[in-house]
Amino acid sequence: MIYRGLGNRLFDSINVMVLILFSLITVLPFVHVIATSFATQQDYMQSKFLLVPKQFTTAAYQYIISNYLLLHSLMITIFITVAGLGESTAQDVSLSPIPIVYPFLQKRNSVRLC
């Protein structure tokens, strides 16, 4: 077994503590958001930071699913994505040198000075 000095053990201990702290700082906000989404409004208003809801409810998700605005916004997102992809693809195709079309584009875009 290799002997590890006090400096190495101290560094490892501090390193582990810093990584655990960083992990908690990173993960706890997500846990808070998820716990808040499943908590009642009274539980949310009574606590500053909620990790486990006192009363579990899915009322917020039921409201979102029953509302037509979620489907409407999803359709708008799909439309914008497809339109942007189509526009980008059309622009790439029009600027790329396709062997069949490229000679015609060269003749059309050429300038004769004589």
UniProtKB/TrEMBL annotation:
For this UniProt entry, which segments traverse the membrane? 16-39, 60-85
**Where does it primarily localize?**
membrane
Query: Do the record's keywords include Kinase?
Result: no
Q: How does it sit in the membrane?
A: Multi-pass membrane protein
The entry's localization annotation reads: Membrane
Q: Which UniProt keywords apply?
A: Membrane, Transmembrane, Transmembrane helix
Keyword RNA-binding in record: no
> What is the name listed in the Swiss-Prot or TrEMBL entry for this protein?
ABC transmembrane type-1 domain-containing protein
> Which source organism?
Paenibacillus chungangensis
